[in-house]
Amino acid sequence: MLRKKKKESLIISSALKMFSKYGFYNTTISDVVKNINMSVGNFYNYFPSKNSLAKSSIIFVSKRLANKLKYINDQNISSRKKIFLFVESYLLFLKNNPEMINYFFKVYLGNRELFCDNENCGFELAEDFINELKRMINDGIEKKEFINQDFFISFSCIAGILGGITFLNSEKVLSQDLEQYKQALSTSIFKSIS
Amino acid sequence: MLRKKKKESLIISSALKMFSKYGFYNTTISDVVKNINMSVGNFYNYFPSKNSLAKSSIIFVSKRLANKLKYINDQNISSRKKIFLFVESYLLFLKNNPEMINYFFKVYLGNRELFCDNENCGFELAEDFINELKRMINDGIEKKEFINQDFFISFSCIAGILGGITFLNSEKVLSQDLEQYKQALSTSIFKSIS
Amino acid sequence: MLRKKKKESLIISSALKMFSKYGFYNTTISDVVKNINMSVGNFYNYFPSKNSLAKSSIIFVSKRLANKLKYINDQNISSRKKIFLFVESYLLFLKNNPEMINYFFKVYLGNRELFCDNENCGFELAEDFINELKRMINDGIEKKEFINQDFFISFSCIAGILGGITFLNSEKVLSQDLEQYKQALSTSIFKSIS
Amino acid sequence: MLRKKKKESLIISSALKMFSKYGFYNTTISDVVKNINMSVGNFYNYFPSKNSLAKSSIIFVSKRLANKLKYINDQNISSRKKIFLFVESYLLFLKNNPEMINYFFKVYLGNRELFCDNENCGFELAEDFINELKRMINDGIEKKEFINQDFFISFSCIAGILGGITFLNSEKVLSQDLEQYKQALSTSIFKSIS
DNA sequence: CATGAATGAGTGTTCATTCAT
DNA sequence: GATGAATGAACACTCATTCAT
Question: CB of C174 within 8 A of CB of D153?
């Protein structure tokens, strides 16, 4: 039902804010639902556990990021341009939705145990985004605009550099506005993988 | 007293292993001390709290990393070479002491709340390492081997790319041995900031 | 209204099954109504509380048992024969309606607190059955077929022995079919009170 | 350690009182420990769960009952006398330790789910007592003082009749003191199985 | 009558920290 | 210093009951 989906999104929104700000383990279910005038008991009508909320949240973020990247990937432009547009888009997204990006970097990457089933802790939950990134890299390599190297190196360059600036931003040490960095960042990223 | 320092190091070693593997919040003091045949009560003779153990641990790691970097910085070689040596040294360190690096990336960066006093969550605890990184970057810029850009961009490039590969390594998705990546990684890093 | 009574019986049937199988405290209202395609909210149109459902259920069982016993009591036969017929009838009932008997022994006798009002926890709820049992005993004593002893002793002999075999049956330790025990059981019961 | 065993017994004693009086599910760990000036947290230094406390409690009771019965079984007397001594001993025990017997009948027999592992809900936990009962019955049969019938019938006669009087006693419907019933009860039991 | 979302008090369990020995 | 029993606040999750629709 639509109504149910709406409520789920509302909960996820609150969770992203709280988890990204205070961390998963320092946020109680009560904290999550207080923001949206929901009772603790009712939360469990929408998610079976706090853990599953964390998982649903990362899927939510991954889908959003994947969409942005897909839109860029689908364009018939140079890889250089794609990198630029992606960085631009990413920085804007980070500015407007810091909780999503911070959730991705802080909770998803920092608390891996939450996202594992048994011993299996892959990236399934973020695969929408990762697959799109993979596509961008492979397209660039095919068109000889990127060097043909191990995927994981290129992945580290793109995600790592963006992760770095994201972290510095969340630490509030950046002196300028985020978008001021888009030129330098996209140039750095492009140089690193071409 | 020397004896006291020895015990502290022992505790930190155990903490780094446990925290990096299971996460700070999933590791109890009892877990930390069980490894080293110490009682829970006695732990508190060495550290006033679990939190302070986390802080001491990151200082310990930061110092170790800073030393490696300082040794390289002190040499009279090109920045290109420095980057290479640093990457090489870093990968070796990661291979031999994964718990330290993983602690840095997972716990220190992923659970910032642990390392804040009041609202102040700077990098004081890792400043030994960060200062040395700053020195390498500034030296390179001065010698015109790196482009003269915002420090934080260059920082993101170096730390971000290494962070990326570190994460992939801890996720066990890398197909080759870590040191196989040193050439490509140092090249990517160098290109990104020059 | 008849319709209302039908629904109540339906609920009680489901409750007897669930309560006897999983216990009162391990069965939720949701469990009870799921079986019969009824909503949780609607349940409260028929019973004011979970507790009252437990009470109504035992009354239901007691009436059923009382009817069987009354039919036997009303016959003009020896007490020896009555005991036999009762045991036979009881074992058949147990075989066909284990949930009723198990509810009686497990929930009604094992969770007395549910059936008390204030401090008053009598047998009112099972009085239909108990009165009929009392009648059988007193008739037997009058006819000098049973020894004239404290009612509670005779009661313990009849109900206790049947309770014993019921328990063993529900634990699935009996090697033979229930009705195979009717001869021995009725003999034992008869001997014990005559 | 002895100290530890002492505390465990203390907890079990309190649990037997509370569980037998209010039922397992209506007694909180807090209730159990309040009686003995222990904190909730400390309880978990002695038992891993509330459930395991229930199991340990029944083992405790079973051992106590088995001892009494063993003492009687070991004597070189007639089965008739054994039955009498056992009933006498049982009634005395019930009078002095009603919480133990009531726990056995109310919680152990009434809440079987607590004592099961997986699908396996045998009598292991009470086997000390049951084995001794089995011995008494078999000895009697061997000496031709009891009829040679299915063990479960004889078991139901002994345990059932005692269970009946126990139940009536805990319901406070008996008009006389417990020991007044020993003659009639032991006679009834003896007659039922001989 | 019927639905099922919403409520919120309640419980088992954990764990950082303390303290008597 | 060393021990580990003791403390108690905190939290995820449950579920009987209510109520808007």
Answer: no
Q: Give the separation between CA C106 and CA C167, rounded to whole angstroms.
A: 9
Pick the CATH number of D51-193 from 1.10.357.10, 3.40.630.30, 3.10.350.10, 2.40.128.30: 1.10.357.10
The set of residues, in sequence order, having a beta carbon less than 8 Å from that of C159 and lying 6+ positions away, is C133, D164
Beta bridge partners of C120: C117
Whether B18 contacts B27, CB under 8 Å: yes
Residues of chain A positioned with their CB less than 8 A from the CB of B189: 192
What pTM did the predictor assign?
0.91
Name the residue among A111, A153, A161 with its Cβ closest to that of B181. Answer: A153
B28 in contact with nucleic chain E (CB within 7 A):
yes
What whole-number distance in Å separates Cα of residue D41 and Cα of residue C189? Answer: 50
Higher pLDDT, C1 or A105: A105
Neighbours of D56 (CB within 10 A): 18
SS3 category, A120 = strand
| D29 C-beta less than 7 Å away from strand E | yes
pLDDT (average), residues B162-190: 94
Single-letter code of the amino acid located at C14: S
Whole-number Cα distances in Å, B24 to A116, B83, B92, C131: 16, 32, 25, 66
pLDDT of residue A118: 67
pLDDT at D48 over 80: yes
Give the residue from B90, B76, B105 showing the smallest Cα distance to B185.
B90
What is the token pair recorded at D2? 């002895």
Domain ranges of chain B: 51-193
Residue B117 is given by DSSP the state B
Q: Are A16 and A8 in contact (CB under 8 A)?
A: no
Amino acid in position C42 = N
The closest of A82, A63, A61 to A72, measured between CA atoms, is: A82
Amino acid sitting at position A84: F
Q: Tokens in use for B132?
A: 């040395």
- Closest-approach nucleotide to residue A27, Cα vs C1': F11
For the cut 70, the answer to whether the pLDDT of residue D119 exceeds it is no
b or e along C23-41 (b: 16 or more beta carbons within 10 Å of the residue's beta carbon)?
Answer: bbbebebebbbeeeebeee
Q: Residue A46 corresponds to which tokens in the numbers above?
A: 């929408």
